Amino acid sequence: MIRVLLADDEMMVRAGVRAILGTDTAIEVVAEASDGQEAVELARLHRPDVAVLDIRMPRMDGLAAGAEIRRSVPDTAVVMLTTFSEDAYIARALGDGASGFLLKSGDPRELIAGLKAVAEGAAYLSPKVAHRVIAELSSGTGGGSMARAAVAKEQVTALSPREREVLGLVGQGMSNAEIAQRLFLVEGTVKAYVSAILVRLAVKNRVQAAIVAYEAGLVTG
């Protein structure tokens, strides 16, 4: 059973997310919070597998709450809920170890798939969010954008052709199972590839790896 903490200051949003999660018998919402500070307190109390946090909340926003949860309850993974208007905040959460980014307006199946992936120790980046994140990271000066691309391209030269192929699919938001199906591999082999990729790229999780994939030009469309 995946135990979930849900935090959003809008009651209707919480009700909607709770209803979606309630359609899967493997997921249980064990606590709800209406602000970031309460989310941190409830995470410490209930120690859920996953904390699903809205970015904009009173008292303490989701970014600060997520960072504190990762610090004080390290076994709890953090998933951020976002809207397109909040893209600029997503990159800030990467360094704090957030494992997932999902759109409030996204497909309900994506929410469930994302939580399951994160609960299993992976990371999940909604494909639509991925495109927006890269657009945000690349929206600065041309020199900065080109410098990041150059660094990313240098990073991926350390990968084998198969690892670069796997990285490109990670950048599309695919799970290990989906990558295995696409490349006709067993899931355990894909997991080993992903672990090696994270080490060689010196990144914390699949979300940061996806950023490198985009900036290195391994993801198109």
From TrEMBL:
GO terms for molecular function: DNA binding. One of its GO terms (biological process) is regulation of DNA-templated transcription. Residues 152-217 form the HTH luxR-type domain. Pfam families: GerE, Response_reg. The modification 4-aspartylphosphate is found at D54. Residues 3-119 form the Response regulatory domain. Keywords: DNA-binding, Phosphoprotein, Transcription, Transcription regulation. PROSITE patterns: HTH_LUXR_1, HTH_LUXR_2, RESPONSE_REGULATORY. This is DNA-binding NarL/FixJ family response regulator. It comes from Kribbella sandramycini.
